[in-house]
Design brief:
The structure is a homotetramer of 180-residue chains.
Chain A: H1 9-24, H2 31-38, H3 42-48, H4 52-76, H5 84-96, H6 100-113, H7 117-137, H8 140-159, H9 166-177
Chain A binds a DNA duplex (21 and 21 nucleotides) through α3.
DNA sequence: GATGAATGAGAATTCATTCAT
DNA sequence: TATGAATGAATTCTCATTCAT
């Protein structure tokens, strides 16, 4: 259902906003571009998100939620006796290849949250979810370490034109997990 | 010297750009705001940086350079027998308190670099400098680990309203250094 | 009765329009604001007044009617041997204090009528009523003089931040009545 | 001189604003219409008058100033032994015929001033000028009476489709002057 | 070299109006 | 009948950029 009464329209608009941010950056996020990408009339974007701020907030929420959902699903699908270091390397690689657009959008939106206090909560939620999940699999200190490391890795990796190898990533995680 | 012939004007403009980005985000960076913050005429900003893109690039270069310079100076001033974990915790804390504006600007500018390939080099330089420096103090794997962890920590810390304690930071670094 | 079937709704909407005009001026009159002030759904304003022009016309009619009604009631309640100059001063004072909002709205709506020929009739009606009434109490020339003077006084008074004193107003009216 | 460097541009824009208001009312005053009437680029209107409020204020000032200037010039050109009642009738007639556009604009702008406190000063200045001038020719009470009467007459006359006759106006003024 | 006036392109946003329900 | 979701048109306003001085 994609007509004027599509109840999913707000979501579609938010997802389009994520795409625009991923492709052109937050400074290129305009109602017009989002409308074009979402395939909805211009008025529809302002109808559902009265101000650009609302749109950014919705996009940030949506991105964070999708991210956490994906992370949890990844976590739950791990084999019981999985090699965590290798699995984490897989996760990071997926995040910067197939999920690249999404990861880039997320970091952009995080950057926006830096100077919009009311968006910080959503941004912090992802960090917390990451940490909690890894803590559950290891211990508080190691979990936090892995979480923060992952955050840094993703950021550095999407910024670099060269994708790190699985071996490099795995070595880092193995090293981080070593002391536990 | 602050007149029309001040040879430091380009730098002053670039620094003003960093301030604007730190305070209002990249999407609020305009020639006008920069001119106002720098205390120079509007025409001066376009004279020295023909397009807004040039200005962003200059700001990113300046931010990265300042950051690396500061990092190196921190490194060189460390006592020979310093406790690295504690020193790193100090560094992170300073980055998110006294240097907060600068750190925020830096992450904003990195976010911009995500979708402007020609800016990525400058952004990646900071990552490299960080890694090299820590590698020199430890070993390749540990150094990379510490560098990436620092990157993640700064990002997370600057996003959170609560400043992490020195103890928490130190514990994380100590844990990361443990296996070396 | 204030539900969907309230037969007074059109009137309530028209009165809300007067309030909006009084507070923010004709250029701020929108269906949305009127709906909010009237406490009715947005659709209700367009249902009863298909276009904004219709709404303005209804507001002008309502304002003129209220004004005339009030004027007549004031006239009928005058003591037989009243001092007309003093009574007129009372009337003007009341118009720019208790009735201030209404007076302001009226002048705004008159201004609108200046370039909407079909609204001029309603606007002119108030002038006529005023004149007729004063003529009945005096003579054609004096009545017209008093009416026009009142019109000017209201406009000037409502534009000035300082309220004229009763004595000033009375003196003016007494002077105007002097020749009769 | 009508090019980009015409120093009279702000004035021309303000005058165009008066024309627009006179023809279509304050609610139709837009930067676009003013630019079209003034024959200047759209950007020029916002360059010289950053907000629509500024433009309205400039128009009001200009209208009030022109009005006062004209009034003073009329006053100074009166023959020493002129019949004031007849001269005033002439003045009013001219105001609603040749000067009709200007008079209408003025009343519109006064209406705007009703809910924009910072514009009221300019509006009140015209009233004061009118009163002072007539007071100088008569006495305080009569002068004020004539001034207010003139104000009311102009308002009523521009609102009516029928122009009052010279005789009617003269009779009113003669009656108002009678007691002096 | 330096400046700031000028302008055209494009932004967010608002809203009258329509129309399905 | 009554509503409010939806949209396209129009508005104010901002600004990068150009260019005469």
């Amino acid at each position: 259902m994609r007509g004027p009464n599509d109840p999913d329209r707000p979501n579609r608009i938010a997802r389009a906003a994520i795409t625009v941010v991923a492709e052109h950056g937050i400074e290129a996020l305009t109602h017009r571009k989002v409308a074009a990408v979402a395939g909805v009339p211009l008025g529809s974007t302002t109808y559902h998100f009265a101000t650009l701020d609302d749109l950014v907030a919705a996009a940030l929420d949506e991105a964070a939620e999708r991210s956490v959902t994906q992370l949890r699903s990844w976590d739950q699908n791990l084999e019981p006796d999985v090699d965590l270091a290798a699995a984490l390397a897989d996760f990071v690689l997926a995040s910067i290849t197939e999920q690249r657009e999404h990861t880039i959008a997320e970091y952009n939106l995080y950057a926006v949250a830096l100077h919009r206090p009311h968006l910080r909560q959503a941004a912090a939620a992802w960090d917390s979810a990451l940490a909690e999940l890894f803590i559950a699999r290891t211990d508080p200190l190691t979990g936090q370490l892995i979480a923060t490391l992952t955050c840094g890795l993703l950021m550095q990796a999407v910024l670099n034109d060269e994708t790190p190898t699985h071996a490099e990533l795995e070595a880092l995680f193995r090293r981080a997990l070593a002391g536990s």
